[in-house]
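Researcher: We're reviewing a set of sequences before deciding which ones to prioritize for further study. For each one, I'd like a predicted 3D structure that I can look through quickly. This is Ethanolamine ammonia-lyase large subunit. If possible, include the structure in token form so it fits the rest of the review sheet.
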Amino acid sequence: MGLTLYRHVIGGTVYQFDGLRDLLAKASPHRSGDVLAGVAARSEAERAAACYALADVPLSAFIDHHLVSYEDDDVTRLIVDGHDPAAFEPVRSLTVGGFRDWLLGDEATAATLSSVAPGLMPEMVAAVSKLMRNQDLIAVARKCRVLTGFRSTMGGTGRLGVRLQPNHPTDNPKGIAASILDGLMYGCGDALIGINPATDSVDAMVRLLHLIDDVRTRFDIPTQSCVLSHVTTALEAMKMGAPVDLVFQSIAGTQAANESFGITLDMLAEANATARSLGRGTVGDNVMYFETGQGAALSADAHHGIDQQTVEARAYAVARKFEPFLTNTVVGFIGPEYLYDGKQIVRAGLEDHFCGKLLGVPMGVDVCYTNHAEADQNDMDGLLTLLGVAGCTFIMGVPGADDIMLSYQSTSFHDALYVRDVLGLKPAPEFEAWLKSMEIMDGQGRVRPQLTGQSGATKLLGFEEQAR
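Model: Here's the predicted structure for Ethanolamine ammonia-lyase large subunit, in token form for your review sheet.
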């Protein structure tokens, strides 16, 4: 299959692009990772020319022209073989620019977007995102609804979940338990209680799973647990009879990048089937929890010359295949080599959320940065608010917003209170009912624990004192 050349003229200068891979890269908003990879536009004029040329590309071109070889890459095969032509039919005749207009129009309702999602390839949604302003990404993502369930239901209209992230640098059980109970008192934890273990071993995973399960069952909390060990560790833990709710794995958008994580698609399929067979969910059986992040494929030298945002969107096709409970882009975690400053992190977070939701993936965002990036908490406040408006499925709840185990800055329990309050958002319905029954949330939806008599909040605090 020959290489298609794309071109556009601006002010008498002809800009030419060698195939879809080059065109997509040059049309991307400026970011440090694409500069590092040598694929970024060399000027704003070249970037504008690429956007004009990209707008005229038919969506169907992505069906015929693959960015990574079908024969050599199992993610490409997953994308191509999983494409639903019938679902694609309503937008088949559109160009990338026409698709943008259609998405922003009244015809693209929540129901329509849900029905079209199986017909969209990740390269299509990455392409259209490059033609969109931030407000466009927000407006379309807000219309997308992806509902999932385990013990709580995620993705409902007017809902924002929080992953309670009680990490500890030595996996100290008292420190973790205290953080869990602290987060619950702030109304956090409906998305999941998820621990990044300091040691990736079966014994450590089993011990932490029992810790979470003890708290969950003691207070009958409608949430789910996850210890973010490697998928192979989770498989061993399940064989031992450990109380595994959700299975975690970092994923990426190419076979080579996934191999750098030590995983294959077959491993993910086995873990998904094994976890579902346990039957631990009560309102659904979505059992996978995936994390992604722009720059992961490039850092593994496994990006195949594709810009980092497009290869990130391909990771969402991997997630979609396994019907996860949640998928999370850890947007600023990988560092300034890939997203240099607050502006780039904000844009990437909105892109990732938009692309995942449009593909039918339940998307959350870890609104975060590392301390050597040109970003601060004010940047994160802005992104957090924008994502709340965009209908983000969930965010992180980290004690004090400072993860002392992973050494990065995220969002705190009180940040979740802020964004729920100013935007009128609620926790998952099952968790909201539990908060009210425990007198942690009042009848107006405010987190105001009633520390009197034998209230549930008082009992939680009593347990926390024991943990300390």
